[in-house]
Structure formats: structure tokens, C-alpha cells
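FORM 7B: Structural annotation worksheet

SECTION A. Query
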Amino acid sequence: MIKTRLDQLLIGTPKPFRKDGETSAIVKTPVEDARMLGFDGLSGNQVADQVHHGGRDKAVHLYPADHYAFWQDRYPDLELLEHPGAFGENFSCTGMSEDRLCLGDIFRLGEALIQCSHARQPCWKLNHHFGKADVLKTIVKTGKSGCYFRVLETGKVRAGDHFIQQARPLPEWPLDRLFGLIIGGGHKGRNAELEMLAKNPLLAESWRLRAGQLAAA
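SECTION B. Predicted structure
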């Protein structure tokens, strides 16, 4: 069972991202005060692209602090990797890597109750944010994706609170296995698993749809 400390709580608001006027809230700033965690996310936090980000299955994003050493070695010139928030995460902590977290894991965090809904599918914005052409490709290859949580019970959370695991309904589905199957290209010949995931309500709706599409391909 996992029990670890929320080291930093981070929020962001949309800011100019490209010269064409597109905005993004990928830049996150740590906050010390308690924030209300509602069904759609943290108070004060916003998303720019509401089609691909935010929503009940993506209420909050966690990126493991454990992975930062890997990225710092890969891109030693990037100052943004010196602090949490480089991947647009709301939660920064250790001990919550993709090989340890499972789909459907439920945690008490402060006053809130949250559930792991899926791993993160990387997008081109990470390449642009880092100024590197291979960030997305590297995440797909390594599975260092981070994850999303849905909120089961709302409540205040703050840095220093502990993730206290309450349940693990799907121990056979660690996030690294799930990511490899749905995003990493490991789906061939695994139709039975894909069809099961497509019907599993614990998996985020967008990934259930993708699982069904892969099974039918």
C-alpha cells in the first residue's frame, strides 16, 4: 500500500504559448495555502484547451518527482527542470511512479478522496514547452508519463498532506502496463485485454474509447 507526502501543490492559468496566439496553462506555480479540490480540479487552476485537458477524469495531474533526475541528465541545459511543474503537474511527490500506481487506486489526500483514472498521454506541447523535439517520443518510449486523478469526494488539500491509499481494485493493471498497451504500441494480439478495458468504468472515458478502437483495428 502506498503512503507518501504531497511535496508541492501547483496551479496555473492560461498564458501565451506560441506566436500564433495559442495559450496554455502548462506553466504551474507552487502554492502553500490549502486549495479546494472539486470534481473539476483545484480552485485557482485553469486549463486553456478544454477539449483535451480538464474534465472529471482529468481533475488533477500528478507527475512523479522521481523522474526529474532522468530528465535533468537528458537535458542538463534546461532550467525549468530545476523545480517541479515542468510537466504541468498539479501534484509533485515521490513514490507514485507508474510501476507503483494502478488504475483505480483510491487515496485520501487531505479532506479529498481521489482515484487514479489513467496515465497521461503526452502531446506536442511538451516538445514546445521544453524546446526539444523528442520529449513526447521519449515519454512514449520510457513510459514516464505521469497520471490523472478523478475526485470522488471534494475537500481541501495542501502541500504536506499525505496520500493514504484506501483501495486497490485492479492490482493487475499498474499504469506502466496500461500505458504500454494503450499508448506505447503494445496492443497487437491483446484484444481480450483491450475489450475488457473498453468496458471498465474505472478507466477514463477517452481511454476506454481508444481501447475499443484498438481492439477493433
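SECTION C. Observations
The first strand starts at residue 3 and ends at 5. The longest helix spans residues 205-216.

SECTION D. Sign-off
Analyst initials: ____
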